[in-house]
Write a structure and sequence with these properties.
Layout (H helix, E strand, L loop, with lengths): L9 E5 L2 E6 L9 E3 L21 E4 L7 H14 L7 H20 L5 H5 L42
Antiparallel strand pairs: 1-2, 2-3, 3-4
Length: about 160
């Protein structure tokens, strides 16, 4: 979006330091760990972390292979060697974790794995009845405004 920060990355911060889990849309991830909480921004594919940064404690060796290529290599190896290859559980669990994050952000509550598996809240009610010319699933209220999450107030649902 024009005028906005353009970044696709994952970071971790802990009591002993911080880490770049991935950046630049994961390829290359430029994964690294820092002593403190100041992480220098990598703004393009040609700008690697400075090796002489005194806060840099570890960095994945460069150049690194794309994780997307690793996935293809694993799949092709399984096909060629007639080995089972199934990422359904990993994919389903990753989707569950994203729902946990959405629910935590919208409610302001800690949401556990088991709570999400047993959650009765419907994130998209009536989605099975959507048709091209039908009404939008989220409707504005009588005040002309759309509902928004109220973390800490509505603790068991999004809106």
């Amino acid at each position: 979006m024009a005028g906005c920060r353009d970044e696709f990355a994952s970071y971790a911060h802990g009591s002993n330091g911080s880490a770049v889990i991935s950046t630049l849309a994961h390829a290359p991830g430029l994964t690294r760990i820092y002593k403190g909480h100041r992480i220098p921004r990598v703004s393009n594919r040609n700008q690697l972390p400075l090796p002489d940064d005194p806060n840099l404690t570890w960095a994945y060796p460069q150049p690194e292979k794309s994780p997307y290529q690793w996935e293809w290599d694993d799949l092709m190896e399984a096909i060629r060697q007639d080995k089972p290859y199934n990422e359904v559980q990993r994919g389903a669990e990753a989707s569950l974790v994203t729902s946990m994050g959405r629910m935590a952000a919208h409610t302001g509550q800690i949401i556990t794995y088991d709570q999400m598996l047993n959650c009765e809240h419907e994130f998209a009610p009536g989605v099975d009845k959507l048709v091209m010319d039908g009404p939008a699933p989220l409707q504005m209220g009588p005040d002309g405004k759309y509902p928004v999450p109220e973390p800490g107030i509505k603790k068991d649902r999004e809106y």
